[in-house]
Automatic annotation (TrEMBL), chains A, B:
CDD domains: HypE. Residues 49-160 form the PurM-like N-terminal domain. InterPro entries: HypE (IPR011854), PurM-like_C_dom (IPR010918), PurM-like_C_sf (IPR036676), PurM-like_N (IPR016188), PurM-like_N_sf (IPR036921). It comes from the Bacteria. The lineage of its organism: Bacteria, Bacillati, Actinomycetota, Actinomycetes, Kitasatosporales. This is Hydrogenase expression/formation protein HypE. One of its GO terms (biological process) is protein maturation. It holds the Pfam family AIRS_C. It comes from Streptomyces sporangiiformans. Belongs to the HypE family. PANTHER family: CARBAMOYL DEHYDRATASE HYPE, HYDROGENASE ISOENZYMES FORMATION PROTEIN HYPE. Residues 173-318 form the PurM-like C-terminal domain.
Length: 346, 346
């Protein structure tokens, strides 16, 4: 909760630290205290993962993401898959089906051409799966020791269907909170391969494009309130961001949050909380109660939503705060993470 | 001419070298041999600096660029100015007025927050000057030693006006080649500060947004054939790319190419050819002869085109080749540069 309640700690922190890229409170501070004032933008909620813009009579979602994941290849995917699905999913969270992507490479001198080719092929395959076209690109090279193999930025545009208006500000008490499946998988997959840990079974990243799942949900009703893909900072960061922006309280039934046993075990060993671990192929939806059962059924009928469940609801109490009801009947506050437990997971 | 005539030298070069980011033949090889096949795109001309796409009934230009310039601040600008103007100009070369930008930062752990703030402020100021809005962003942080202070990607979208269709394929013999002003300035400005060289006068980067100048030109006639901002690889790379894509020959009057004396002197000292040095606020236009005088007059009436001049013409002879007529009456071939004389100038 630091960024929302304390005075400007950024000013006491004269240098960038890893946490500024973690998607938690420190990232929010950087945006709120440096970028938004500098760009003279539309206020604190202006510089979001995905912007809705009007141009030439069309209502578009426009999004950007840079990818610096280590290692470049991991169980279940690669930086190329992430680079496509990350931006496709940001657009999907605006209700848009991704249409066109850009691709900017920053390569480090000395990286093998073969590695670049494998990454590019993974991007191409992911783009075909997601039904999106890479139409413009750029490549820069930096001297050996001034980069880290391959960094990728993708940006994307997609059309927002009429009647769709997904914003945290639309969330109201009574809304039902649904997640599309197991949480914590991507972060644990990266951690296990990076640290050379083995947990009996190989945990594969859940990296996937969510445009089709979102379309299936919007076919039930365009009146969903907000969607988020809980990447950096995990489910906890997404829920806190929505509670804060909507001024509502959120109650999560901890037992209802789906965590696969291998992920739970790995988290226990590593001292991680699955609520804070990144996902790359999951979404959390805030749905008006009247539509919740139908939306849930539509999600379960889609391969990427087969394990969707309701995990909580929006309440009048404790505005701006996320609370979990524990298995033992107690409650605990689910804070906005400060930085990221696990840097460079995307 | 290497990339257009020789068999696949990329395969003999198993690792990325600086030249792959130089905007010359090696960059083209990377795109043609790795990225275009991997992305399964629309062929060799598909992955351009700026793509024209249809979405929701609107015809948009969509472009991306990453910026890795060293140093971050230089006479006449900063990486922030480049990041905004570079993408604004790529869109302008499609005839589009930039409307919205995205901004992706990759920060190195340990960089001063003050530096990030100065860069962001420069971006904000440049965006206001160019009349474009930064609407979506992303920040990643990499460990100290795995980045280089600040890398920025910007992507942008803008509306292409009806009747405007700027493509090298439209170039025909008889077209007049016009540059909007002095060439070689940005590259020499970066080089002088990076190498601590002094040339009597400080040479400032020409970094500027070209959307207004392009609008003034299109107001004369929407029937311009192609526009390019000769950045990496300089005027030589832009002219070669157009000659190759259009299958025409280009003849340049060497004496007509405007090179300010301080830039000419610096190039002489450094062994650089101003035709190959990057610009960041200049454009080269291919204009039907019938409109050339009027377009030139419109350019000269604009502050960023005050020194515009005709430098050559398109011919039937030597298709795909650029030839310069020298001051002494001879001719020389102006090759596509292989890599870049001066890496990381943008």
């Amino acid at each position: 909760m630091l960024s929302w309640t304390c005075p400007a700690p950024l000013r006491d922190q004269p240098r960038v630290v890893m946490g500024h890229g973690g998607g938690g409170a420190m990232s929010a501070e950087l945006v709120e205290q440096i970028f938004t004032p500098a760009f003279g933008g539309p206020g604190p909620s202006g510089l979001t993962d995905s912007a809705a813009v009007e141009i030439g009579g069309a209502r578009l979602a426009f999004s950007t993401d840079s990818f610096v994941v280590r290692p470049l290849f991991f169980p279940g995917g690669s930086i190329g898959d992430l680079a496509v699905n990350g931006t496709v999913n940001d657009l999907a969270m605006s209700g848009a089906r991704a249409a066109y992507l850009s691709c900017g490479f920053i390569l480090e001198e000395g990286v093998a051409i073969d590695v670049v080719e494998r990454v590019a092929r993974a991007m191409g395959a992911a783009a075909r799966t997601a039904g999106v076209e890479v139409v413009t690109g750029d490549t820069k090279v930096v001297e050996s020791g001034h980069g880290d193999g391959v960094f990728i930025n993708t940006s994307g545009i997609g059309l927002i269907p009429p009647g769709v208006d997904l914003r945290p500000e639309r969330v109201v008490p009574g809304d039902v909170v649904i997640v599309s499946g197991a949480v914590g998988v991507h972060g644990v997959a990266i951690m296990s391969v990076r640290e050379g840990l083995e947990f009996g079974v190989e945990i594969e990243s859940d990296c996937a494009p969510l445009g089709g799942l979102v379309e299936a949900m919007l076919a039930v009703t365009p009146d969903l309130h907000v969607l988020r893909d809980p990447t950096r900072g995990g489910l906890a960061a997404s829920l806190n961001e929505i509670a804060s922006a909507s001024g509502t309280g959120i109650v999560v039934q901890e037992r209802a949050v789906p965590v696969p046993p291998p992920v739970a075990n790995a988290c226990a060993v590593l001292g991680l909380d699955p609520m804070y671990v990144a996902n790359e192929g999951k979404l959390v939806a805030f749905v008006p109660r009247a539509h919740a059962e139908q939306v849930l059924a539509a999600m379960r009928a889609h391969p990427l939503g087969a394990d969707a469940v309701m995990i909580g609801e929006v309440v009048d109490a404790h505005p701006g705060m996320v609370v979990a009801r524990t298995a033992l009947g107690g409650t605990r506050v689910v804070d906005l993470p400060l930085g990221e437990q696990l840097p460079r997971i995307c």
